[in-house]
Write a structure and sequence with these properties.
mainly alpha, 0% strand, elongated, FHIP, FHF complex subunit HOOK interacting protein 2B isoform X1, FHIP_KELAA_motif, FHIP_C
């Protein structure tokens, strides 16, 4: 097309220079457009039915063809200079704003996009280009849901691509009008050499171009006087590339919204530190993104069921609508929209330049977490607490970016973890949330426990350190004044407990399938871990066990699951450099008061009431404890999984809590007639094998089932954590004759 146009022009003009003929053709097409506004009287004819689109296309083709002919010279040709000197883009922007003829704005967006994309000569540095670009961005941003959304997003795509290639362009496109004026007065070269003679500054906007006047009063009346173009310092609400992109992200047209999000992602990932700093300090980037996030949060109904929130999965910024195969519930679309945009913010922070990522993460923490979410978490209304906790859990489940995770952890746990005292009041948000885990409302307790379980799966060391490790350091839970035990006879003497008979302790460990590989090269260590596994497997007395009657609940299943979870947890914490074994105790060191911390105290208290609590609550408590036990830290392994630890006076461990629960259970069994039959029936009900019906002592019976399964799970975790797969335990050889 372009070569044919050039050939025709050369044939028509003979020996004259092709560049002169191209300029005449270019000017002729531009005059044809301006004459339309003088001659036309029909205000209803759409722009696409006039010759304006054709003439704009010819002007574009001439510019591209001319540039190809000028490649050797490496400078702008006469047609491009004419475009710049006579402010054609400024005039087109004005015509687009007037929307005359109807659909003209669409034509202007298309022309701008194609010129910037197809003309290779750098254009956006010129005042007569980036100023109308800014105006066109403001024009698009003021019409939400307009008919030109498709053209607007194409226009922003070209701009973001140009900025990605040359980050220095960012300031030209985003700068306000006051900055434009300052640049012009600073003698910076913002014009072509031949353009400088024609373009002065905004105080003298008129040029000698003969074709600027025929545009007609109807169209040019939309252009503000030159002296009113300056904006005051700190002009608020001005639309620019950032606000235009965020506005297009809200489009109801899925493709438009997705493309706008991709463009914004491209913009914040610029590698230039200067451009990233400009985005943070001199643009509304962070504020606009986070403001939309807060608006979407506020639009989520306050009466959401936490179970519905937990069940909604698969929402991402590329697919913000909720999956259609899931059950519908009131507020589902609003919830999906919020989680989709939160996922997008998280992705922005992941991909953005570090300067932008940190600023955006801090903005999310300040505006959403602190100003909106925290008052809801601390509200007296149970429904407000439920909904906000469930939403926070859903956000944590989607969170991937290190910067936003760091802010979320600081928001929930504080920035300086210190060992807690038993009488410390709930002065922090974390203390309040731990208190919610032991709330009078079981639903609030379950929802908050889910929050902590999700938090424990995040790759941030401060989580486990704040909640658990800062209280275990020093091993003050171990009795002082005597050397480390040399054998199991020197440790906790379980034989003295009336519920631990010889037959109970001598039960053998026989998994039904081959478990993951154990450290066979260390026979002493293997025997030692078998002792620990046996201690948990044999903790529940035979008369309270029912899993042997059903095939689906074998111990080997727990070993398989625990092995996968432990490998995942170990890879997550590997960068933290944890020690392989606990620090040896000084036998001469005096004993100090030990407090397990508010989090473990709450879990132990809940565990001690397992026979009295609802089934769903027991499942959540044991799930959190299992997550904790998986961590490959020697202190966690010792405190939660070593039954033979020599506890200091007044201290308790997970195993000692379970021992007391078993003692309570043995007394309660005597008061329940036909206990074994009822217990088996309840297990079958929980597994869906028989219809559910209300039974006497149902809470107790369900608690016994959970207790049995939890002990098997702890045994499996202890088994897969043994060296070389876990922390090195300094365990002595077992007694002779013991399995």
């Amino acid at each position: 097309m372009l070569s044919r146009l050039g050939a025709l022009l050369q044939e028509a003009v003979g020996a004259r220079e092709p560049s002169i003929d191209l300029l005449e053709a270019f000017v002729e097409h531009w005059k044809g457009i301006t004459h339309y506004y003088i001659e036309s009287t029909d205000e209803n004819t759409p722009a696409k039915k006039t010759d304006i689109p054709w003439r704009l296309k010819q002007m574009l083709d001439i510019l591209v063809y001319e540039e190809r002919q000028q490649m050797a010279a490496g400078e702008a040709g006469p047609c491009l200079e004419y475009l710049l000197q006579h402010k054609i883009l400024e005039t087109l922007c004005t015509l687009g704003k007037a929307e005359y003829p109807p659909g003209m704005r669409q034509q202007v967006f298309q022309f701008f996009s194609k010129v910037l994309a197809q003309v290779q000569h750098p254009l956006l540095h010129y005042l007569s280009v980036h100023r109308p670009v800014q105006k066109l961005l403001r024009l698009g941003g003021t019409v939400p849901g307009s008919q030109t959304e498709k053209e607007e997003v194409q226009f922003t795509t070209v701009l973001c691509s140009k900025i990605q290639q040359d980050p220095a362009l960012l300031t030209y496109i985003l700068e306000g009008k006051k900055i434009v004026k300052r640049k012009k007065s600073s003698k910076e070269p913002t014009t072509l050499p031949r353009e400088a003679a024609s373009i002065q500054d905004k105080d003298h906007p008129r040029s000698k171009a003969p074709d600027m006047s025929p545009c007609g009063a109807r169209a040019l009346s939309a252009q503000p006087p030159a002296e009113t173009e300056e904006e005051p310092d700190g002009a608020a609400g001005e639309s620019n590339l950032i606000t235009s992109l965020v506005g297009l992200c809200k489009s109801k047209k899925g493709r438009v919204a997705l493309k706008a999000q991709e463009n914004l992602l491209l913009l914040v990932s610029v590698a230039s530190p200067a451009a990233a700093t400009y985005l943070v300090q001199s643009s509304p980037c962070c504020a606009a993104v986070v403001e939309h996030l807060c608006q979407l949060y506020q639009s989520v109904p306050p009466f959401l069921d936490p179970a519905d929130v937990a069940a909604l999965e698969g929402v991402s910024w590329r697919l913000p609508s909720a999956p259609s195969d899931e059950a519908s519930f009131p507020g589902k679309d609003a919830l999906a929209a919020f989680l989709g945009w939160f996922d997008y913010c998280d992705h922005l922070i992941t991909e953005a330049h570090m300067v932008v990522a940190d600023a955006l993460a801090k903005a999310v923490a300040e505006k959403l977490f602190v100003e909106i979410l925290q008052p809801h978490l601390l509200h007296v209304s149970e429904q407000s607490v439920l909904t906000s906790t469930a939403l926070l859990t859903a956000m944590l489940r989607q969170l991937r970016s290190p910067a936003l995770l760091r802010e979320a952890v600081a928001f929930l746990l504080g920035t300086d973890p210190q060992p807690a005292a038993p009488d410390d009041g709930p002065r922090t948000l974390c203390a309040h949330l731990i208190g919610h885990c032991d709330h009078l409302s079981d639903e609030i307790s379950i929802t908050t426990l889910r929050l902590f379980e999700e938090l424990l799966q995040k790759p941030h060391e401060q989580v486990i350190r704040s909640l658990v490790l800062c209280n275990l350091e020093g091993r003050h839970y171990v009795a002082r004044g005597s050397p480390e035990p040399e054998s199991y006879e020197d440790t906790l003497d379980l034989e003295e407990d009336p519920y631990f008979t010889d037959g109970f302790l001598n039960s053998s460990f026989q998994p039904s399938a081959k478990p993951p590989p154990a450290p066979a090269t260390n026979s002493d260590g293997k025997t030692a871990v078998t002792e620990i596994v046996n201690s948990f497997l044999c903790l529940v007395p035979e008369e309270a066990k029912t899993s042997a009657f059903l095939e689906e609940t074998g111990y080997d299943t727990y070993v398989h699951d625990a092995y996968g979870l432990f490998q995942e947890c170990s890879s997550r914490v590997a960068p933290w450099g944890w020690p392989l074994g606990p620090t040896p105790l000084d036998p001469h060191e005096p004993e100090q008061p030990f407090f397990e911390g508010h989090f473990l105290r709450m879990l132990f208290d809940r565990m001690s009431r397992i026979l009295e609590q609802p089934y769903s609550l027991n499942l959540q408590v044991t799930s959190v404890l299992s997550r904790l036990a998986l961590f490959p830290h020697p202190l966690i392994h010792e405190y939660l999984l070593d039954p033979y630890i020599n506890l200091a006076p007044g201290c308790r461990s997970l195993f000692s809590v379970l021992v007391r629960v078993i003692g309570d259970l043995m007394q309660r069994i005597q008061r329940v007639p036909q206990f074994p039959g009822k217990l088996l029936l309840v297990r079958k009900q929980l597994m869906g094998q028989v219809p559910g019906e209300q039974l006497d002592h149902q809470t107790l019976l369900q608690g016994v089932v959970v207790l049995e399964e939890f002990c098997k799970e702890l045994a499996a975790i202890a088994f897969v954590k043994f060296p070389p797969h876990g922390p090195h335990l300094h365990l002595s050889p077992p007694r002779e004759g013991h399995v």
